[in-house]
Specification:
By secondary structure, chain A is an alpha/beta fold. Chain A has 18 helices and 27 strands. The first copy, chain A, has a nine-stranded parallel sheet with strand order 5-4-3-2-1-9-8-7-6, with helices on one face. A seven-stranded mixed sheet of chain A has the order 12-11-13-14-21-20-19, with helices on both faces. In chain A, strands 10-23-24-27-25-26 form a six-stranded antiparallel sheet. The longest helix of chain A is centred in the middle third of the chain and has 27 residues.
Chain lengths: 679, 679, 679
């Protein structure tokens, strides 16, 4: 009855990456070490259970000389060693960063930032995504690598470039401007259409010719939001075009699956992965806990659900995460004992069938020398290595989970376009950020035990019991309509403030917010009334809220809660339009309730929607089920400080114990129950 | 006996804008809408009482094509529609922002910031004030517009450009450097004189030729303060020259009054409006509440008094404010119900005879789409529109106030040059900002019921009972002398710390601060001793203070209060030189007392000065009187959360009730009493 | 038995600056004043006791015209006046800042910052240290000045440039890049060696030719840390080369000692003064209290000890400090009454034999007009001047101290290279800064009464009872070995966390931290585990700690204290390897204890080491001894708010009183005891 994320025809038609049970993998950068270390490394990989190794990620400057000649001897050797050990290779195209001789010869490759100044070599990704010179050199390298290894039996996966757009997503150089113009021409056809889309009649911005248009470089005032939004779209497309170009070259030589590592995480927002996902043969993600956030583990859970959404529900690959600290945050915290295993299984619970790490052996030089690795600076006589051994063993024990899927009654709409439009320069409140709103709802849903698919706006929603729409500021008309259709078919909806305000072109829909869902929700918002950060709003129910109020009328909806004070005192804070004739209910949240209140509201909404939930979940306890033809597996992930007893019946795979009614889950640990069919 | 701000001969000689009662007006940007909306808009303007509409503010890219041809059809139509409806037109010259074709053709127009990088089109005001190319194109447009509409009967006012200098006041390009050199040559005559004025003998900065001088671009260390100060003067003058040039072109075709909209507000400091005010035929101001400040309403009251000062006491025009939130602050708060009316009447009470709004109909695209308007996105079925209708009705009811003037016993000296010199790079304490000091004194004066004229240093002060001089760091010798003259004639003075320190060339006057007023005040300050932000200083009186102390000797003054601790423990904090032989008293404040202490001190000072005050004023209650030949009007503005009773006798114009001893002023409301002559 | 800092052969071979007792001196910039003032100034200098005056510091634009001609008339006169008054001259070469005509003619001299934009004239030091054009012009000026005054009897010291590198230490222009390449070539010989040193195999950064290498301009990601580190070394060397070039020119004309003013202070880190110190004929330092710090006086004490270390224990010169506030901090606090004297004597106690001030007479114009001076704006009728007179008298009374030396049992290792490597872009915790760690240890040592030499890593340490090594992240192998050698010879050691991690090339030593001292300390650290700022860690001893923990094993050491909670709960926080066979003990601190705990730990460490301490020292009381052939002098510096009694026997030089068992030291005052030989 529930409707998992669908697999498209397109995905079925292409090569498919075959996970071997749950793959345990890592990045390996052997160029850093004497060849004498390589054999020891491969032996240790076998010991710990590594089955998939990414190499040649940053290989360019090792492989190619300024005269164009290529030296594959090192790569030949390492691939051979891995293959001999039965380890599969995830082969990088090596184009992630150009070698110094290339940017010296062609400085026009270098990226330009918004103030018009150049950014220089010395780090990584010092290239403009629109540079034809870079593209030519990169594709020539890909051609040579793919020709050499396209039929190599060790190669199980191609890895295009690396973290495309991590640093260089937005380039403002003249070449980028030319490409942007071509992209705009293709999008709009006529300059008049562009003028209408960007609203250039305001502030004397009307263009008369394509050549007048540039990238949205810094202005003295704020910039045209349509131009900025389209530049984000263009920039995502431009890097996707680079991916496609490398993909096409590889396909000339190899039928092995191809992918690139996404970065579904808090601080990367310039790539619209909804448009990228159909282009990869397996969805792969890099994820690092972000200790700048209030709840890093909640972000992990969301990122994993979103990655599964990108994979249309199919198993995906965690291409990179870390055994311990990273090195690029202000304060790089170590992981607690067991946390590496817990986080690995959290990803697994939410659909990952490969658990890979950056990187195999900790660098002793360079920018990432304080980034953790499977083999730390301390070597194998270390707690980290012992935990890696334990993880390897666990991944073998849970291998049967591979191929199963999460089944959710609840969908949450997520959109990069909405992110871009929400976090724009001039907006009602800079304290209202898109991700915060999304996370707040996702976190509260987790605490209720609901399983959640993260879904692209526009997808068919009729199979879900409930669709949650947090702050979806930009939504296209046709995307909005799918929610109406689902509600008409009995799905319930929960929409939060600032949703549905602007259309595809960032144009406000007038007539009372959110115009596109005004009837669906039975409300009409007259005016936004955000409050200063720190101001606490009291609700009639006794709960509190923050950040936002609005002045609205509930025209065809029950008022579930009201603001007691603040700028919208006496006005509705939570409404519910009760569905008639088989329609679902449509709830609206006009503020951000505190966590407990939000969880309580969601409890009501889920109950009304008849959405299934997994018992015993809570703020510190994730409960997730993966199921398939072979059985059903329940993951209990204890993020809290106390041991807990969880009702369960079946075989616990991590410990091998039989759960005969309950299972004890120690603080910080994970248990995986192969559920009895009766449970 | 009191001496209001005088009207100069020059003002009398020029066209005068005739307010019609209290004008209710707005900006209108019809280019954003289908022509079908225009007729509906004009009808609604009539309904709400709009009498003055600004158009063509950002018209350039609509009017002119790259080949130079002009299309006035849209502007013809809208002016015609307005005229037919009896609505007067405030006609923009349309030069506020160059069209993209112009900056594409002439990129040398683009402004350059202090690090030497360019700022680009895509926002507004992307032009260098010193660009002759821009000037030529702009004046050609003005010529065409003025020729076409110079005799049009609808045109009641010309509106030059828009918010000149809001973003582009300081340009550091080579063209600006050349203009700066010419300006310096005119100011100093010889390079030696410039060297003396800037003190270039320090740090090896002596110039030998004009060509060696540039704009004060970023240096590795701090910059020469004389150069920076003169660059501010130059930049203000350069934009004023632009205004004058447009003015001259208009005058060739039209005798209608001309103005431009000032921005007397917290975050705009680069225009010295004392030099601008004599050039406009009516002083017009744009004012927006700034919720980044601790007390936005206090800033509003000060800005209104300062605007009246610029208008020499004559009625002025509030050219822009907002019905609700703006869109460019970090957190854009909505106005409380009634606040739009209250703020409108606060401006009116302090001298505005026109109350205009940006803008008529809320944009649905572009940078300002979340800026409020008279017709919000929600349309006319909205509380905002209903409050606009109420405001329209009130403005009709108080129309008789038009033409009256505020009469004040107290003057407060304000100077943009002092602002520039105070908030410089290297100074005793960056926590001491000029505006904060000015606001503190103005706010305390409001709480005492004193009416305050804000006056330019150098004006004749002899008519006032009290002159307040907050932190006037830079004061010219001849400006300082006017205070001595007034005190000699019986006016009292209150000077606060850091006043009178430097002369016109930012040169410290040695011999003990503040040398220029040392005798006047009877004190001698040896050393500044600021304290860290957050440090609380205790005074002998029991009050507290912050930010500043100094080590001083009261040579010819009574010590009114002393520092108990801190770096000037035991030294005077407040002094009073008692005037003899008909002189006024001269008070000095060596610190920033807390609000209650400051109000108490001012109470003593005002009493000693014999300055009249309006009863029942307070921290939350403004009481202001406007008076003229036809009568006297008392405004009671209740900014507080509670209703209050105010003693009054007369007709209350907002409600039409008779005040027979008292009038009830609800929380957040304003009442306007036509005072019985006996009261 | 104790081993003071040694004087090198090189120092003995060169001209030596002869202090006359304790020199009292100042900078004098007479160009700012009419010549009429000069005679008055010289008379006042005599009155106050000034014996050494620095002139011509920023003389270039006064001396030289664009045609190259020189006018020495003013300088002749001022030197003559000083000489006639018996005042010695510290003669600036005048090259500190180029005149405007030079940078106008040669804009390629201007410095370039990391984003590639230029910084402009208008301040000071607007020159690239690698500019050959600047060098040529500067040396020509030096040649002329030295030729003219090289034999002048007034000249007692040459003052090269001024605060070299204060603003322009790092230049990223193309000329700097060329010089950087030459420097790298000299350092590494081959491009392969450079690739190995910088670890360029990571991130595809391998260089194939010197021409591919640039300065470490801004990248989109983080930069290669080896490149950044070498750029710091290069930049320090490049300015030192400038110093040497001026030095060589002067030596052609004069045998008078030569120096330049160092800036051993919190915010200057780009000059490795260990390499500079051997090049100057007397070590001179500029020091200003930094009120941005939590404990400015502690930084002063450390800076003075470090300056003495640079001077190898010999008397040094305080070339600049201030009588009161400076002007370049956010909040420029005045000094408390007596604080100028106290700070002067704090420097003196720690080895300064000259106490000089910037500047003689307060400027009334320019960037430094609010910087205090010996003659303030208020003139000589001021407390500041009276305190200057008192200081002059005291310096005469303590003149006999001149030439004596501090004798310390404790050495603290300090390294600019470690500073650079620690405070790099990507590191475990940005909250852990090198100076903070150094200051914490130095401050706790002061509170124990220990006297501390600050010593360069690599120096022979065998003479000390205890060597303290705070956070010495980068240490060369051979430098590390000197600690082992000292401990083997009976010296005790205290090493704190993050020490010994990387080698000369910023390459991590693997195998468990800190590999280079793992055996010395008997520990092995597996993993860093910093904590967020603000998190308080509890120790088993009851103390607290912050910032850092690590997961370690005490393999051959006693565990003195443990973490109770946090990421390393239960693991060692303080360890002690007890020395056998005459070895000293080796202590290790794995965290930053609170101040009281740290002092307690140091108390134990010092007692175990048998290090001598001066009695009655404490958090607010510095006690320092200088001794020589002529006697022994104890300084008691009371930084606290209360008077205190200090045990002493001898003559107190400040007051002339006899201390017969004790001396009273008033709050904020200093007393200097000529100790009876018995005491």
């Amino acid at each position: 009855m529930n409707r998992p994320l669908a697999t498209t025809e397109r995905q079925l038609a292409r090569p498919r990456y075959e996970h071997r049970g749950i793959d345990f993998g890592c990045d390996y950068n052997p160029e850093q070490w004497d060849r004498s270390v390589w054999r020891e490394d491969v032996a240790l990989m076998r010991e710990v259970g590594i089955g998939l190794v990414a190499v040649n990620i940053f290989g360019w400057s090792e492989l190619q000389s300024p005269d164009g000649s290529l030296d594959f001897s090192g790569l030949d050797e390492i691939i051979g060693l891995l293959h001999d050990a039965g380890i599969r290779v995830n082969l990088g195209t090596g184009t992630a960063s150009p070698p110094p001789w290339l940017t010296t010869r062609h400085p026009e490759i270098l990226p330009v930032v918004a103030d018009g100044t150049t950014r220089f070599p010395g780090g990584r990704q010092a290239w403009c995504p629109s540079s034809p010179v870079f593209r030519d050199y990169a594709l020539a390298l890909v051609d040579a690598v793919a020709e050499r290894y396209g039929q190599h039996p060790a190669v199980a996966l191609w890895h295009v470039s690396n973290e495309l757009g991590c640093h260089n997503a937005l380039c403002y150089c003249e070449q980028s401007a030319a490409s942007f113009r071509a992209w705009l021409h293709a999008r709009y056809g006529s300059i008049d259409a562009l003028n209408r889309a960007w609203g250039t009649s305001f502030w004397s911005q009307r263009y008369t010719d394509w050549d007048e248009i540039g990238t949205p470089r810094l202005t003295l005032s704020t910039r045209n939001p349509g131009q900025v939004l389209d530049f984000s779209r263009f920039s995502s497309d431009e890097l996707l075009a680079h991916y496609r170009a490398e993909h096409a070259v590889i396909r000339r030589h190899s039928s092995v699956p191809i992918t690139t590592n996404f970065m579904v995480t808090a601080h990367i927002r310039e790539l619209d992965y909804w448009t990228w996902a159909p282009e990869v043969d397996v969805v792969a993600n890099d994820h690092y806990l972000d200790h700048r956030l209030a709840d890093p583990e909640a972000e992990l859970a969301f990122a994993a659900d979103l990655t599964r959404g990108l994979a249309q529900g199919a198993p995906w690959m965690l291409m990179e995460h870390s055994t311990g600290s990273v090195n690029w945050q202000p304060h790089n915290l170590a992981k607690a004992p067991g946390q590496m295993i817990r986080d690995s299984l959290q990803h697994l619970a939410r659909g990952a069938d490969s658990i890979c790490f950056f990187q195999w052996r900790a660098s002793v030089q360079g920018s990432e020398k304080f980034h953790s690795a499977l083999i730390p600076h301390a070597g194998t006589d270390s707690a980290l290595w012992r935990e890696a051994l334990e993880l390897g063993a666990i991944l073998e024990r849970v291998a049967e989970v591979a191929g199963t899927r999460v089944v959710a009654d609840v969908a949450l709409l997520f959109s990069w376009e909405a992110w871009w439009a929400t976090d724009a320069e001039n907006r009602p409140s800079s304290a209202v950020s898109y991700l915060d709103q999304v996370w707040a709802l996702h976190r509260a849903l987790r605490a209720t035990g609901a399983e959640v698919d993260v879904v692209r706006p526009g997808a068919d929603l009729t199979g879900y019991r409930l669709v949650v729409v947090p702050g979806l500021h930009l939504v296209r008309d046709e995307e909005a309509a799918t929610l109406d259709a689902a509600v008409a078919a009995g799905t319930h909806a929960l929409v939060t403030f600032y949703s549905g305000i602007v259309d595809e072109n960032d144009r406000v829909r007038p007539g009372g917010y959110p115009a596109v869902w005004r009837d669906l929700l039975g409300i009409r918002v007259e005016e936004f009334a955000p409050v200063l950060p720190g101001q606490v709003l009291t609700l009639e129910s006794g709960g509190t809220a923050s950040l936002w109020t609005e002045r609205m009328v509930a025209r065809d909806a029950d008022v579930v809660d009201r603001f007691v004070g603040g700028p919208a005192a006496g006005m509705p804070a939570v409404t519910r339009r009760r569905g008639a004739d088989g329609d679902g209910d449509a709830w609206y949240l006009a503020t951000l309730p505190d966590e407990a209140s939000l969880t309580r509201i969601l409890d009501d909404v889920l109950r009304a929607a008849g959405a299934s939930r997994l018992a015993d979940a809570g703020r510190d306890v994730d409960v997730v089920r993966r199921a398939g033809a072979g059985g059903s597996y329940r993951f209990i992930i204890n993020n809290g400080p106390d041991d807990l007893l969880h009702s369960a019946r079946g075989v616990e795979l991590v410990t091998g114990e039989i759960a005969d009614g309950s299972v004890r889950v120690p603080a910080g640990a994970v248990r995986v129950i192969r559920e009895d069919s009766s449970s």
